[in-house]
């Protein structure tokens, strides 16, 4: 019994019409309203008309105040995270030192008990 080659062939580099139809490819389920599309002359951060516009290398346009404020807040956030990471590493080092001191104290106590335990009092 021959197979239906056109609908069962999956080794193509592209989707067939039947596969697209099964996936719902290209069907429009809902429309985008005017509120969901940003006007061309508005800032990408504040969504208001430009005040002293600046453009990045990728072509995104921002207000000068908005982008400077965003960059400063990102810089402060990075510094805060770095400080938290440094304090966490410092605490881990202190905990490791305490563990090593406890381990040495246990070894010394075990050695003393072993040596003094053999001598009668």
TrEMBL record:
It is found in: Nucleus. Its main location: nucleus. It comes from the Eukaryota. One of its GO terms (cellular component) is nucleus. Keywords: Nucleus. One of its GO terms (molecular function) is ubiquitin protein ligase activity. Residues 90-109 have a biased composition (Basic and acidic residues). SUPFAM superfamilies: RING/U-box (SSF57850). Residues 86-121 are annotated as: Disordered. Residues 112-121 have a biased composition (Polar residues). InterPro entries: NOSIP (IPR016818), Znf-NOSIP (IPR031790), Znf_RING/FYVE/PHD (IPR013083). The keyword Nucleus applies. Coiled coil: none annotated. Residues 5-75 form the Nitric oxide synthase-interacting protein zinc-finger domain. Belongs to the NOSIP family. PANTHER family: ENOS INTERACTING PROTEIN, NITRIC OXIDE SYNTHASE-INTERACTING PROTEIN. This is Nitric oxide synthase-interacting protein zinc-finger domain-containing protein.
């Amino acid at each position: 019994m021959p197979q239906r080659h056109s609908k069962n062939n999956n080794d193509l580099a592209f989707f067939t019409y039947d596969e697209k139809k099964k996936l719902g490819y290209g069907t429009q389920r809902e429309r985008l309203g005017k509120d969901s599309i940003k006007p061309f002359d508005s800032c990408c951060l504040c969504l208001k008309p430009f005040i002293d516009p600046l453009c990045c290398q990728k072509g995104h346009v921002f207000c000068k105040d908005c982008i400077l404020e965003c960059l400063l807040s990102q810089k402060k956030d990075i510094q805060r995270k770095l400080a938290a990471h440094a304090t966490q590493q410092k605490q881990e080092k202190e905990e490791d030192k305490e563990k090593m001191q406890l381990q040495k104290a246990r070894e010394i106590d075990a050695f003393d008990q072993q040596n003094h335990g053999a001598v009668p009092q």
